[in-house]
What does this fold into?
Amino acid sequence: MKFIKMQGLGNDFIIIDNIEHKKDHAYLAALAPQLCRRHFGIGADGLVILDTSAHAPFRMRIFNADGSEAEMCGNAIRCLAKYVWERGYLRELNFDFETAAGIKNVTLSLCGRTVDAVRVNMGKPVLNSKKIPLSGPERQAINEKIIVDGEELYYTALSMGNPHCVIFVQDLENKPYSRWGRMLEKDPLFPQRTNVEFVEVDNPETITVKVWERGAGLTLACGTGACAAVVAGVINGHLRRAGDVKVNLPGGILKINWDQEQNVYMEGPAEEVFHGEVNNIFRKEEFLDGPHC
It folds into this structure.
């Protein structure tokens, strides 16, 4: 089975073109933990399936490295947008993807015949705790206190199609964000687990973010996480609303804009790293349970 390896700011994915392969999605999902294992597999933060859709030109499904399905991924959708245009699936520079978080619109910027950057309408943030979801009474969880590993932290919760817990800190590099992220992901406060963003405000137009991604751990970038960090920054009075906010992630920079119509726009690059072919002789249960002799 052929695959393509792509990355957006170091957030890397195994792309399966299911328009070509026509494989069962459950079978592909079962492969994700093995294929995404670094050193023992191809290695990636997630496995992304490109398919046709009855509601848009294309459908995207993404499975995290642990096999769980994510509703949405900003870096992955940029990679797929670049892939379908450069493979000639369509010639428009503005088109839609169906995702588990709804229809998402993308706009391509070209450098010659190559996609240089992709701008994505990520939709409106959800602050209602029942819809994120968040346990406890219905509310907007803005700057709420939580105790993590004996430390008193303050979080803002929202959904960008998937759940996020945003925590503003000072001296980010010296904080145990990896340990905190691992604990917060599975905190009972988040019944469907959560992505966690640790954010240091550099100025009203720039932030630095470390992301613990649900189902993948620490990642070099997270598109929905960058969007959530900017929304939380505006709500808490750290960031200005007008214009782009520059989000510094370990893998590079994303530009995020939360406009007056409440839509959040994300812009950044995507890159094809390599393509190859994976051994396809294993049965589904062998990937689930290990090799059978």
